[in-house]
Amino acid sequence: MRLHVLVRGRVQGVGFRWHVREIARRLGLRGWVRNCPDGAVEIAAEGSDESIQRLQEELRKGPPGAVVSSVEDLDPLDQLHDQPFAIMR
């Protein structure tokens, strides 16, 4: 299963990318997370249905200090790299 979303709210400067990377790695997901110029955080992930659903739950909560106002679904990307889940710049 693939996930591609934008998370909006107070999600930059609060450890959100690091939080997502750690959860995704624990869940065995491939993909990446990055900050967007407009203040959102973009996430692309691929893995089992159960792992993707768990990540989606965590995205709605965020780490302490984050305030998630929305999680917007985007069209899934065609392919993701095979490396461990990473923070992109």
In short:
The chain has 89 residues and is an alpha+beta fold. It contains two helices and five strands.
Write up what this structure looks like:
This protein is α+β, with helices and mostly antiparallel strands. It has one domain (2-87): Alpha-Beta Plaits (2-Layer Sandwich), CATH 3.30.70. The protein has two helices and five strands. The chain has helices at 16-26, 49-61, and strands spanning 2-10, 30-35, 41-46, 67-73, 86-87. It has a five-stranded mixed β-sheet, covered by helices on one side. A hairpin with a 5-residue loop joins strand 2 (30-35) and strand 3 (41-46). The protein is globular, with a radius of gyration of 12 Å.
Total beta strands: 5
The third-level CATH topology is Alpha-Beta Plaits
Low-confidence stretches: none
Q: From the structure provided, what is the oligomeric state, counting identical versus distinct chains?
A: single chain
Name the strands of the widest sheet in spatial order.
Answer: 4-1-3-2-5
| CATH architecture tag | 2-Layer Sandwich
Supply the CATH class. Answer: Alpha Beta
Q: Nearest-angstrom radius of gyration?
A: 12 Å
For the sheet with most strands, the description reads: 5 strands, mixed
In terms of structural class, how would the helical and strand content be classed? Answer: alpha+beta
Summarize model confidence as the mean pLDDT.
Answer: 94
Estimated share of beta-strand residues? 25-35%
Helicity, in percent?
Answer: 25-40%
Categorize the overall geometry: globular
N- to C-terminal distance: 24 Å
